[in-house]
């Protein structure tokens, strides 16, 4: 058993979108959330050539009224509620990500920062030169360390001593 102030989650790519969904639907359940390389504005994914090719068949077409109703009900960006106490959030994106462009994280961070009443940080990290994930091991380690340190800080965890 646990309590919300001791619980965090992380998701990347489609998992980053899922993290955004969970974060906006049940913010009271978490102390911290990490969304890595997420798609968060599902009504605008078709505007990116790579995004359109990859997401229209999978998620639906925002130009179709039936699909749009489903997309807007699920889209994390469209479900941020002003005056809500959101947990601490770290959004990470690659500056050169063709699948999940950094504008998703930037736009969501701005909306979440304006909406939250919790006082917890909403942070944005755009990794220069990165695509849809790091390829060099040094970059992988840096990215993993970054979000793990964020979660540890927010949960009040300390590294074990030898």
Automatic annotation (TrEMBL):
Where on the tree of life does the source sit, at the highest rank?
Answer: Bacteria
Spell out the PANTHER family in the cross-references.
Answer: PROLYL ENDOPEPTIDASE-LIKE, PROTEASE FAMILY S9A OLIGOPEPTIDASE
As given in the record, the signal peptide range reads none
- Supply the InterPro entries for this chain: AB_hydrolase_fold, Peptidase_S9_cat, Peptidase_S9A, Serine_Peptidase_S9A
Q: Which family does it belong to?
A: Belongs to the peptidase S9A family.
Native organism: Sphaerisporangium siamense
Name of the featured protein:
Prolyl oligopeptidase PreP (S9A serine peptidase family)
Which Gene Ontology BP annotations are present?
A: proteolysis
**What GO molecular function terms would the record report?**
serine-type endopeptidase activity
Q: Where is the Peptidase S9 prolyl oligopeptidase catalytic domain?
A: 2-156
Record-linked Gene3D superfamilies: alpha/beta hydrolase
